[in-house]
Amino acid sequence: MESLDSVDRVWISRRYEHCSGCRRCEIACSLQHEGKIWPEASRIRVFMLIPGIEIPHLCFQCEDYPCVEACPAGALTVNSQTGAVEVDSSKCTGCGLCVNTCPGRVPHLHPERNTIVICNLCGGDPACVKECVKGRWNALELVPAGSVASRKPLAKTPEELTRETALKILGKEVLKEALG
Amino acid sequence: MRGYAGRLLDVDLSSGSISETRVPEEDLKNYVGGRGLAAKIAWDRLGAEWETVDPFSPENILLVLTGPLTGYYPGSKTCVSGKSPQSNGLVGSTVAGEFGVDLKCAGYDGIVVTGRAEKPCYLFICDNHVEIKDASQVWGAAARETLRFLVRKTREDVSRIRPRYGEAKEPSILYIGPAGENRSRIAAVMSKYSHAAGYGGYGGVMGSKNLKAIVAKGFGPLPDVYDDEKMLRLARRFAEDCLENTWFRRWGTGGGGYSFGAETSSEPVRNWQTEWHNKRSYRREEFDKYWVKKNWGDFGCAMTCLKLAVIRKGRFKGAVCDNPDYELEAYVGTNLGIFNPEHNIYVSYVVNELGLCGIQGGAVLGFAAELHQRKILSKKDLNGVELKWGDPRGFAALAEKTAFRQGIGDVLAEGVYRAAVKLGEKKKRNLLKYAVQEKGMAIGAHGVRSGRDYISSRIAYACSVQAGDHTSPASPMRKGDRGELSSILPDSGVYCMFAAFGPTDSEILEFYEAVTGWRMTLREWYGEKALRILQLQRAMLLLGGPDFKWRPGVDDDNPPRFWEPLPSGPFKGRRLSRRRFEKERLEYFKAVGWDEKGVPKPRTLRRLGLTDVEAKLRRAGLVT
Q1: ipTM of the prediction
Q2: What's the CATH number for B251-442?
Q3: Is A156 touching B (CB cutoff 8 A)?
Q4: Which of B351, B376, B515, B619 gives B356 a disulfide partner, CB atoms 3.0 to 4.6 angstroms apart?
Q5: Residue B263's closest CA among B414, B119, B120, B447?
Q6: Does any domain span residue A3?
């Protein structure tokens, strides 16, 4: 596994409380990878389990890549240049083991093909970030991968992230009523 | 066919049957989608018996329609329609959110709901899996509880349909609160916390069908478009226009709560007793401290002019809503004598939770308060509710009674017009002079007397086919002004007018062509297609019934209060000229091919191929 981040590698930092919910990242991502506006095929998906608490959810690039380790088909590899996970669709069987191994349950099946999709950082220049920054929402920002000491602890499920974010901006009582 | 999914979902709640309908291409070309298509479908299905169809009967249809621009334009909406329990005509009522996009991705351009379910239910749509599901668990529940249940339940159901998909996103949801369930005529179809299709009263129509909600999840892409490159190039341009509009992004329409009162003197204050205030406590900056999100929006929107407001401490702790837009700043603010942002946010939160339309709800609360002020309604009449101008708790309590139709709330749930008629009969007084409304609908929070509002036409509401709807105002159509016809474009393309300040109509039609591959000139749209939609809506409005019918010409008038001089402020004493009003009205009728009373002329209808409308109006005695 990769242990050192090369200097020019990037990482997408996320500030959930800044997300406008515009989902223009989903549009940009699906156009980039599918050539269509296709929210469910987007590698970045904005979850809104509570209105106003929008969680852009995409690969965190854990240092130890548990998904890559877990893949029984050898369909997942780490791109040595970007550090992103690459999916070899011809090998992927859609078994779902990578979803269950991911601490954030990030990967999901392509809605029409039985293969998993994972953010590949668009080769180092992610379309979602460009859109977010252009709109000055800055919920997503590109940072040097080395500037984040540890990424794996940040990898959480949509529900966990919703709870953390909602606690901060709505408070305990509202969170309980809105999410249970 | 490009830009459209090509089919509608047809759901009969009485029999439980679910089927698909294809809309003829010709109809799509002529009526586009949303409001236009709603007029066509409603006319075809109910037109012959329009006057006798009770909006709350199983015969009425509830329409939920997208448009060809939904999802592609950077700012989307969903249009809700049917026979309106307010105007007894047809209103195209739009709501923001992802619903239309999810629906199109599921493979449907819209939903037609008929009948009435035996038990409370909700409609579940996940691509081809369409089911009528039990909603008894959330019948009676307010917004938060309803959404919590539906999000959890639907994610589980979607995971069963796609077991290895991974984490399922939430569905898009349209729902009603207790107000809709209790067939209030002023209930909205809600989305998220405060997004609402308010005008028209379609929340009550959903309630009359025992339909608590519609949830949609679509796994497909948006339908293919005709010219990808051109569509994307234009969409980027339109988005950039939004991004450059820093003022609107910063404040949204809520930037107006102070200025429409202090500067243009056109804001309802204490049930429109005046339209001026100068309360600095109500400046836009004062709302800012309650915002947890400053740039908030829905799918694809580049403007993101919404704000999310939260009250974190004190007596109203826990109130969460879209920061009141201008309409709610006015109707559940100044109109109730409230000039305190926190109180305004609190009452907004309460009416949203109950599923009342903020405009119609705020209007009827203000109407009740004025009757109380004039000692026409006693505290006993109000079932003990302490109603004081500016006191949010009294209004919140009365809103709850209204949503549940308890005591006085039963008559207030009928909306301002019908409440004025019914209470007037009981009190043996003419209360319509205190009812600021148009053909059964409370009007938008933009007075026309000062002439300084963006709605400055004297006939804006009096002649609108959507009655009190401030987003569809009529005007005499002088010098290339398109009047009400211009609002039919966003309502039928089903995109957000607040994300469309930049593009011209020609550019929108260019975009429409890039999406659909169908060329449409401005002349075709304004001279023919939009005009045809207007005629249909006018015909349905005039046919009206069964409880009220509007007299052509006579009822195309301003509310009585608008004929009084403005009582205070910089435009004190200014009044509308009856003579000019009548001249403008006549000009307008002429411009759209109506007779001097506002009845579509046979010649106009024939030119537009609406001979069945002509025949129907003849049978109803409107055309002689």
Answers
A1: 0.97
A2: 1.10.569.10
A3: no
A4: B351
A5: B447
A6: no
